[in-house]
Design brief:
The structure holds two protein chains of two kinds.
Chain A lengths: L6 H10 L14 H15 L3 H11 L10 H17 L6 H38 L5 H38 L2 H24 L7 E4 L2 E4 H8 L3 H15 L4 H17 L4
Antiparallel strand pairs in A: 1-2
Chain B lengths: L1 H20 L9 H12 L2 H14 L14 H14 L4 H27 L1 H11 L2 H40 L2 H26 L5 H12 L5 H20 L2
Helix pairs in contact in B: 1-2, 1-4, 1-7, 2-3, 2-4, 3-4, 3-5, 4-5, 4-7, 5-7, 5-8, 6-7, 9-10
């Protein structure tokens, strides 16, 4: 058979999958990008226009997941397209159902691991070097984020193609995904906790005069606990974020607090 | 010279925007990466690195996930760093300048995503005909739009804005500048608070305080903290497995 999917075809999808958000829009999000990366496969499987048209229509519909984890879904749909090309009466609805079923869970995994963990660790380590003028900061940031990114992107494609949905079903049903996400949260939390102490700068020059004695307010805070004010401020803002205050509002609020604080001699 | 620099920075902005559009989202568009490149282009690598790191902390909480369009840290980061160098702003003032730029540029990002939606119907027509070349063309049209919407504000901002910014800053009262400096130290708290929304729950709370104590009381470096974090994560995972 001539139209068997080979490694080199999968690699074409690997490279093209990078362009997932090239035509990102509010209506169908990553749809065009998804179809774009499937094209090498579809051209190989469906030489005639009619079947090509059917296949393209399947893939230009709404799609949205994490770019870092999408390759798994590509792998799974490529395997199904291949089955469809070689089997009569294949139910093509299965292809769209799989995409719809996988994009949510994989977005959850991708966002919490890549945006919520690897990026934070990379930025935490990187920015603390960069603010001292060390170029290693940027380099470490890129590596800490992208080594896991490309390991997952590459392996996800082949796992998706070879074992398809069963792999992920298994990973979810045995709780492996949940446990890994929990572990990722732990690591992210440790780093965020440290960054609150090392990167938030919040202290007061306020000096109270009580008769003969003067009292530096900051010394009192430091006596209770170092970095007490940065910790308190972060939790205060965290509370406001959870109450639904917009990022922009809070950002402007902090600018105002800074300026007022200086005028009042508090900051 | 300024036009050549503006052109190079605008190209940097376009390609940085492409990182998350056609590049696979490698975080090469974040200020910590673009900052040093801006520094190289403008001949002040050191300031570029420091500005990049500082803006990264301020914007750490801004994430580009789901369907939402966040403040544009690509344009804000590049222009903010460029102004720090070209207009001679100190780091906190440059941060305060970068913040509104990112908010303004956000509207361009929204505009691009709205225009791109009109391409969907064209894609349906091509799909109907089985015209895969048409689909490829549409992807690149969308990508071109993203490029232009980052290229243009950075080019105009650098070519015509740096003197304006330098002038405006000289008119700002010293106390307000000092206030902005203070605020730039407070802003990372917002970044951390947004991150906590993703990771803070009753299971991870203790670990957040562990990290805090390591840095606040024991002055462990961030790399050291990250390694301890990895150990804590491994232990946590094993304890879950044995349940």
């Amino acid at each position: 058979m001539t139209n068997k999917i080979e490694r080199k075809d999968l690699m074409k999808v690997f490279w093209r999958s990078l362009a997932l958000q090239g035509c990102f829009n509010y209506e169908r999000m990553q749809a065009i990008g998804y179809a774009y990366a499937m094209i090498p496969i579809l051209r190989k499987l469906y030489p005639d226009d009619e079947r090509m048209s059917e296949a393209l229509k399947r893939h230009v519909g709404f799609f949205n997941t994490s770019p870092q984890t999408v390759s798994f879904i590509y792998g799974a749909t490529i395997a199904l397209e291949e089955q469809n090309a070689t089997t009569e009466d294949f139910d093509t609805d299965a292809i769209n159902s799989i995409k719809a079923a996988l994009m949510g869970p994989l977005a959850g995994i991708g966002d919490s691991f890549f945006w919520g963990t690897f990026r934070i660790i990379g930025a935490g380590v990187g920015a603390s070097l960069a603010v001292t003028g060390n170029i290693l900061g940027a380099i470490l940031f890129i590596l800490i984020y992208n080594v896991p990114h490309y390991l997952l992107r590459y392996n996800g494609l082949f796992i998706g193609y070879n074992s398809g949905v069963s792999f992920l079903q298994n990973a979810f049903s045995t709780g492996t995904i949940e446990k890994l996400t929990g572990a990722a949260k732990v690591m992210g939390s440790v780093v965020v906790g440290a960054l609150i102490a090392s990167m938030v700068r919040f202290s007061t020059p306020l000096v109270l005069t009580l008769g003969e004695t003067t009292l530096e307010v900051q010394t009192i805070f430091d006596g209770i606990m170092p970095k007490l004010l940065p910790l308190g401020l972060t939790f205060l803002i965290f509370g406001l974020v959870r109450k639904g205050y917009k990022t922009t509002t809070l950002m402007l609020g902090l600018l105002v607090v800074g300026i007022l604080g200086v005028y009042l001699g508090l900051l | 010279m300024i036009y050549l620099q503006a052109l190079l920075l605008a190209l940097l902005a376009g390609f940085a925007q492409w990182d998350s559009r056609i590049g696979g989202q490698n975080m090469l568009d974040r200020p910590i990466v673009t900052g040093p490149i801006v520094g190289l282009i403008l001949g002040d690598l050191q300031t570029g690195i420091i500005m990049g790191g500082t803006l990264e902390l301020v914007w750490m909480g801004i994430v580009n996930i789901g369907g939402a369009t966040p403040p544009d840290t690509v344009t804000g980061g590049i222009l903010g760093t460029a102004f720090a160098i070209l207009s001679g702003l100190d780091t906190p003032t440059a941060v305060a300048v970068a913040l509104p730029i990112a908010l303004l540029a956000q509207s361009l990002g929204i505009f691009a995503r709205v225009i791109n939606a009109t391409f969907n119907h064209k894609a349906d027509e091509y799909a109907e005909k089985g015209d895969w070349r048409g689909i490829e063309k549409i992807l690149w049209m969308g990508a071109a739009l993203f490029f232009v919407f980052s290229f243009t504000p950075v080019f105009l901002g650098v070519a015509f804005g740096s003197d304006v910014v330098a002038n405006i800053v000289t008119y700002i009262p010293a106390k307000i500048l000092q206030g902005l400096r203070v605020a730039s130290g407070l802003l990372p708290a917002l970044g951390m608070a947004i991150l906590m929304r993703f990771i803070f729950d009753k299971h991870s709370a203790a670990y957040l305080f562990l990290g805090f104590v390591l840095a606040a009381f024991l002055n462990v470096s961030t790399i050291g903290v990250a390694i301890i974090g990895a150990i804590a994560a491994a232990l946590h995972y094993q304890s879950l497995l044995s349940k």
